[in-house]
């Protein structure tokens, strides 16, 4: 008998509790700063950071004097965020646990709602989008980032898909949150002044093989995927994955450029 698939929230908790996200998160600090700057965060704002992870965007917003709540589904992430806030000498950030598809806040509770690669993984995505709008007051801003579909992580995901057993419950690709047409459809008439821009961060690695090794030891997504693949297929998967990563690796910088799209809108 096939075991019943875990609920999306249970799956998300397991995935993001594995590995060492704290080793990955510093690579995204520049993106978090870009997001906070684009959202024009000021000291008069109340801010919610959905899927705050280890606190990159929440702490950046709090350093501008905003009243910030960092929100994540994984307690381990919140513990690391609290420690990062302490190290950054940032106080008064409220850290809350829960799911992005059922935010435990009143309607119109925040001036600004952010998500730096966080809400993009929530299932189902249309519900996550509605929740971003619901908790943001009219005239307030929402802003979020997502990996572009043509980037290295989606390319690696496509390789994994060829090795993974069929799964009728596979969710929609999270990278669709970087597709302007999909974003317009999901946010519908709930926003105005919808705008998009792209940015790039660099992930420092010594080689494509180095990046693959870091992925399968630090990233819960890849750890879970590898565990579901027949061990006999691991060598061929590694070879194909390294070949895929090679297309993105820049040897002159010992890094992989990772493009993301930043979406910003005003809530109606």
Salient structural properties:
268 residues, alpha/beta, Rossmann fold, 7-stranded mixed beta sheet, disordered N terminus
Helices and strands, with pairings:
Layout lengths: L7 H10 L3 H4 L4 H10 L7 E5 L5 H7 L4 E6 L2 H13 L6 E4 L12 E7 L8 H10 L1 E12 L4 H12 L16 H8 L3 E14 L3 H11 L1 H8 L6 H13 L8 E13 L1
Parallel strand pairs: 1-2, 1-4, 2-3, 4-5
Antiparallel strand pairs: 5-7, 6-7
Taking all Cα atoms into account, the compactness measure Rg is 18 Å
> Percent of residues in helical segments?
25-40%
**Which percent range describes the beta-strand content?**
15-25%
Task: Give the count of helical stretches.
Answer: 11
Write down the secondary-structure element order.
HHHEHEHEEHEHHEHHHE
Structure, explained:
This protein is α/β, with parallel strands linked by helices. It has a domain of 183 residues: Rossmann fold, CATH 3.40.50.150. Helix content is 40%, strand content 23%. The chain is built from 11 helices and 7 strands. A 7-stranded mixed β-sheet has the order 3-2-1-4-5-7-6. Helix 1 packs across helix 10, helix 7 packs antiparallel against helix 11 and helix 9 crosses helix 11. The protein is globular and about 55 Å long. The relative contact order is 0.16. The N terminus is likely disordered.
Quick structural gist:
40% of the residues lie in helices and 23% in strands.
């Amino acid at each position: 008998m096939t075991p019943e698939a875990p609920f999306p929230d249970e799956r998300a908790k397991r995935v993001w509790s594995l590995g060492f996200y704290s080793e990955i998160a510093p690579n995204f600090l520049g993106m978090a700063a870009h997001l906070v700057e684009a959202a024009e965060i000021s000291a008069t704002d109340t801010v919610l950071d959905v899927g705050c992870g280890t606190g990159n965007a929440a702490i950046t917003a709090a350093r501008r004097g905003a009243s910030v709540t960092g929100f994540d589904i994984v307690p381990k992430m919140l513990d690391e965020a609290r420690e990062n806030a302490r190290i950054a000498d940032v106080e008064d950030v409220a850290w809350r646990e829960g799911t992005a598809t059922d935010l435990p806040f009143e309607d119109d509770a925040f001036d600004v709602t952010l998500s730096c690669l966080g809400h993009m993984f929530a299932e189902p995505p249309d519900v996550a989008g509605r929740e971003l709008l619901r908790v943001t007051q009219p005239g307030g801003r929402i802003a979020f980032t997502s990996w572009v579909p043509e980037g290295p992580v989606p390319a690696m995901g496509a390789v994994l898909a060829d090795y993974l057993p069929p799964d009728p419950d596979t969710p929609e690709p999270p990278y669709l949150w970087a597709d302007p047409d999909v974003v317009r459809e999901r946010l519908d008439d709930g926003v105005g002044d919808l705008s998009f821009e792209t940015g790039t961060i660099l992930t420092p690695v010594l080689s494509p093989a180095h990046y693959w090794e870091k992925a399968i030891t630090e990233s819960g997504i890849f750890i879970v995927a590898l565990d579901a693949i027949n061990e006999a297929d691991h060598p061929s998967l590694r070879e194909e994955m390294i070949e895929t990563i090679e297309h993105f690796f820049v040897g002159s910088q010992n890094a992989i450029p990772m493009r993301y799209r930043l979406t910003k809108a005003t809530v109606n």
